[in-house]
């Protein structure tokens, strides 16, 4: 099966970290995912984009084993996750879209706990938690309850809990939400360093300029299918010299933004 | 939103509001919204008395699609509120027995009003606090073009409506009983007393909040409200038991004459009004308190409305969440115990996690601590009940009797604990169970159960054991060990009977759906206590050790067969 895939870039020789074939997912008679084929290799930062409801989060949740009932094949680290048990998750880090965590706990408690869930010894987990929080500039807050944190601080805790166990495959669902401009730069650099160390980053977002800048490869999902797959340059070569935002509009076949905005303003002026 | 009868009543006096410059439509809208929210809120009393809704249990190794981040319980229209009012009505009905008991007006009315005002007071501090201390208004309403006067009036009316409903539910039966037995004037006076008394309670509560907010921070107030809620539920469960036993009926003869010091008690203010207005006793001893009863609440209300802006400002302190965490020694202690009690690393992780969660979550405390208090008190209540029926406390056979077996009643908290631990206010955080490599969910449940047992049950049991050992002597220690083992056995057995869920993974239900499920476990507890008694009564001294050994063996089986299965 491996030979069938045409080599795309210089990482092609390395074994695929992630490989999805013919993935379909049906929610109440509607196909959210309609035959997705996807591969990712070490060192790639994949920007996973698409309109609301295109199935981005669903894909990620399927790969994490959070959503069952799909058809098709999902292989992570060379093994089919339907048969792999839960051990493969040890190599995965995940930041969910909604910043929900057990906020009665302090950051120290939460991070130690999640670290332990990923098999770290409690002492090591706590030490790494402390160091990560320190590096994020939150060492003062580490023993405060997360409920008292701002959105950005919670996001930093989620990022820490995602990275604490040194995962090889990292799923980030809107990881920058709530972060200030400086922290955004830190995270961008962080992702580049991680990719340079051979980690695979799977990055889902609606903010096109960020995706455009950090992704080594962009996968655009539309109507439950992969509508485009390639580096930003490759997409531009196909669609003309445009920004990713414009390419996004073009590929998802969306041109009515002006009309919709006019209609909305029209409603406001209703008397 | 529904059209509330209450609002239609207000529509009639719309002109009054408009005359004092209130934006009536806006106020009506806000009130309607608040009434709708009220109906969907869980109240302390409603949470205590179980509902009928039962959700099927079952162990979920992953998350079925769709339910991943959705609360499962839909708000049941009028459920919580109606149930609460019903139970307050019941309390009113119980208290009206004093009206048929005979005695002077002073006495009868005094007792009834004392009971009703006390219930009002506790309810005020618990359920009502969420109405009074609602700070969500700030972001939602204060950003809209609604003037402060209208908002203030909406809030005051909301409080008034809430409170009237509640006073009516509480007072309905006593007033009817009063009218039937002593005529209409009595009933009207009782109604007036409750109205003024209610106002007094409301104003008093408001001042207490204001004082606490001024002196301390919002967290102290939240804690305080939490403790009052707990105290109230314990009072409801235990209070009547104790009160009825403690009431010295001898002193309550027909010829009760109050001393002046007793006039410091507000319930007797209103009782004095009965003597004055209905029996025509116009000594200052009766007139003065009656006037106090009307004047103090009115004065208080006026002063409070003056202070309303100050109160609103103080409420801002409630906005922030509690920043306090646990101290380093507490963390080390948890960690040490986890290593002692748990085998695998993940089990230890869950032990520490659960221990912190149990300590930190207000809503969990509110729902569980009352039953802890109850199980702390109930062995003694049982002991005294059996004792007083047979000639007083001195009649208990401490030397060789089996009265200490009442301590089994302490374990009835265990099913509640096990059932509640699957809920959490931050249940949405449970995605972590799915995304982390948890190979054996059994580990998660086991660690959590152990934390429950050690953190919540054991301290209470040890206190009780110490007292009972002091009463019954060192001879009962082997029996205590058996009880401890039986209690530990209940943990997996409850799970077997009710089905497993991941800890802290579901939202708190608006009504407790598990009341019935625990009955089976309680029956089982009764059977075990019976077996224990039989062993003590019919076998020689070594019998207890055999029992201990067999309960320990049962533990081994119970834990293994329930919690060592899934891979």
Main structural class of chain A: alpha/beta
Q: Largest interface, per-chain counts?
A: A-B, 42 and 40 residues
Mean of all residue-level pLDDT scores of chain B = 75
Helical run tally of chain B: 23
Question: What does the main sheet of chain B amount to?
Answer: none
Average pLDDT, all residues of chain A: 86
Specify the CATH architecture of chain A: 3-Layer(aba) Sandwich
Unreliable stretches of chain B: 44-78, 246-254
**Using only CA atoms, what is the Rg of chain B?**
27 Å
**SSE order of chain A:** EEEHEEEHHHEHEHEEHHH
Instruction: Look at the helices and sheets of chain B and give the structural class.
Output: mainly alpha
Task: Give a written overview of the molecule.
The complex is a heterodimer of chains A (271) and B (567). Chain A is an alpha/beta fold and 271 residues long. Chain A has 9 helices and 10 strands. Chain A has a single domain, classed as P-loop containing nucleotide triphosphate hydrolases (Rossmann fold, 3-Layer(aba) Sandwich), CATH 3.40.50.300. Chain A has a 6-stranded mixed beta sheet with strand order 6-7-8-3-9-10, sandwiched between helices. A 4-stranded antiparallel beta sheet of chain A has the order 2-1-4-5, covered by helices on one side. The radius of gyration of chain A is 20 Å and the shape is globular. With 567 residues, chain B is mainly α. Chain B folds into 2 domains: 288 residues, no CATH class; 223 residues, no CATH class. Chain B is 70% helix and 0% strand. Chain B contains 23 helices and no strands. In chain B, helix 7 packs antiparallel against helix 13. Classes of the chains: A alpha/beta (271), B mainly alpha (567).
């Amino acid at each position: 099966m491996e030979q069938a895939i045409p080599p795309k870039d210089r990482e092609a020789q390395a074994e695929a970290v992630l490989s999805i074939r013919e993935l379909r997912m049906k929610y109440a008679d509607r196909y959210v995912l309609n035959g997705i084929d996807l591969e990712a290799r070490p060192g790639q930062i994949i920007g996973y984009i698409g309109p609301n409801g295109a199935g981005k989060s669903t894909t990620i949740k399927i790969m994490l084993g959070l959503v069952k009932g799909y058809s098709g094949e999902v292989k992570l680290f060379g093994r089919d996750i339907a048969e792999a048990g839960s051990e493969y998750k040890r190599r995965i880090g995940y930041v969910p879209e909604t910043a929900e965590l057990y906020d009665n706990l302090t950051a120290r408690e939460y991070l130690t706990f999640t670290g332990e869930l990923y098999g770290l010894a409690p002492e090591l987990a706590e030490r790494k938690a402390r160091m990560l929080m320190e590096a994020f500039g939150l060492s003062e807050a580490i023993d405060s309850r997360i409920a008292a944190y701002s959105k950005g601080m919670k996001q930093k805790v989620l990022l820490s809990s995602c990275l604490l166990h040194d995962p090889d495959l990292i799923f980030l669902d809107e990881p920058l939400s709530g972060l200030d401009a400086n922290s955004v730069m830190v995270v961008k650099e962080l992702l580049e360093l991680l990719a340079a160390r051979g980690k695979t980053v799977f990055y889902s977002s609606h903010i096109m300029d960020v995706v455009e800048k950090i992704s080594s490869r962009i996968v655009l999902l539309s109507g439950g299918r992969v509508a485009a797959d390639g580096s930003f340059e490759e997409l531009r070569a196909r669609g003309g010299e445009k920004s990713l935002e414009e390419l996004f509009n073009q590929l998802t076949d969306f041109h009515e933004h002006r009309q919709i905005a006019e209609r909305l303003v029209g409603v406001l002026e209703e008397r | 939103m529904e059209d509330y009868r209450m609002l239609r009543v207000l529509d009639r006096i719309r002109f009054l509001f408009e005359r004092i410059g209130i934006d009536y439509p806006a106020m009506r809208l806000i009130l309607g919204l608040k009434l709708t929210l009220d109906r969907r809120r869980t109240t302390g009393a409603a949470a205590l008395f179980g509902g009928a809704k039962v959700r099927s249990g079952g162990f979920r190794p992953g998350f079925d699609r769709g339910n991943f981040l959705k609360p499962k319980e839909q708000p049941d229209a009028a459920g919580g509120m109606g149930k609460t009012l019903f139970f307050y009505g019941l309390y009113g009905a119980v208290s009206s027995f004093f009206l048929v008991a005979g005695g002077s007006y002073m006495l009868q009315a005094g007792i009834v009003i004392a009971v009703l005002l006390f219930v009002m007071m506790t309810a005020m501090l618990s359920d009502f606090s969420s109405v009074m201390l609602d700070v969500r208004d700030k972001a939602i309403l204060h950003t809209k073009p609604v003037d402060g006067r209208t908002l203030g009036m909406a809030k005051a009316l909301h409080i008034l409506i809430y409170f009237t409903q509640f006073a009516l539910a509480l007072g309905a039966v006593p007033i009817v009983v009063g009218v039937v037995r002593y005529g209409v004037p009595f009933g009207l006076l009782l109604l007036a007393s409750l109205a003024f008394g209610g106002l007094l309670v409301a104003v008093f509560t408001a001042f207490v909040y204001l004082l606490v907010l001024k002196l301390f921070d919002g967290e102290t107030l939240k804690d305080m409200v939490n403790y009052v809620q707990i105290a109230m539920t314990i009072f409801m469960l235990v209070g009547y038991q104790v009160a009825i036993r403690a009431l010295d009926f001898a002193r309550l003869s027909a010829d009760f004459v109050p001393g002046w010091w007793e006039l410091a008690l507000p319930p007797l203010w209103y009782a004095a009004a009965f003597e004055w207005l209905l029996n025509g006793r116009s000594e200052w001893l009766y007139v003065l308190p009656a006037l106090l009863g009307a004047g103090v609440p009115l004065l208080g209300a006026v002063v409070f409305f003056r202070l309303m802006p100050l109160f609103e400002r103080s409420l801002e302190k409630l906005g922030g969440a509690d920043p306090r965490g646990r101290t380093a020694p507490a963390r080390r202690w948890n960690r040490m115990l986890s290593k002692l009690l748990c085998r695998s690393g993940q089990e230890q992780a869950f032990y520490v996690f659960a221990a912190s969660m149990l300590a930190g979550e207000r809503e969990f405390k509110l729902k569980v601590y009352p039953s802890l208090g109850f199980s702390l008190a109930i062995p003694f209540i049982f002991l005294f009940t059996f004792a007083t029926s047979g000639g007083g406390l001195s009649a208990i056979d401490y030397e060789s009797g089996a009265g200490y077996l009442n301590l089994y009643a302490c374990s009835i908290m265990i099913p509640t604990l096990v059932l509640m631990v699957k809920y959490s206010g931050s249940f949405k955080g449970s995605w972590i169970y799915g995304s982390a490599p948890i190979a054996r969910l059994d580990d998660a449940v086991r660690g959590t159960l152990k934390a429950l047992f050690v953190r919540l049950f054991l301290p209470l049991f040890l206190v009780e054991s110490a007292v009972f050992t002091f009463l019954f002597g060192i001879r009962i220690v082997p029996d205590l060990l058996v009880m401890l083992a039986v209690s530990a056995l209940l943990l997996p057995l409850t799970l077997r009977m009710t089905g497993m869920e991941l800890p802290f993974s579901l939202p708190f239900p608006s009504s407790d759906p598990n009341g019935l499920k625990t009955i089976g476990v309680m029956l089982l507890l009764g059977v075990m206590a019976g077996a224990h008694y039989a062993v003590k009564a019919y076998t020689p001294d070594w019998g207890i050790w055999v029992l201990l050994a067999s309960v320990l063996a049962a533990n081994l089986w119970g834990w293994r067969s329930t919690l060592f299965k899934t891979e």
